[in-house]
TauD/TfdA-like domain-containing protein
Amino acid sequence: MSPTRCKARILCACHINHGQDFQVRVKWEEGTVALWDNRVTAHTAISDYNVHNPQEGLRHGFRITTLADKPTGASGLGSTW
């Protein structure tokens, strides 16, 4: 693939990634738990809350990595990383 076409595909993927069609927004309440499979997910916290407001409170994030089978692609090919 030419460098120009490669760059165009990367920009397209980044545009899709930042679009709202594939986003999940969690309304955090006391006791809320959300899980993502980090092998296929890009995630980020959105700072749309006031950490100094007791009504909104603090959010805590923990990263848990499991020891499991190596991920495989849709065609059954093994991961190279």
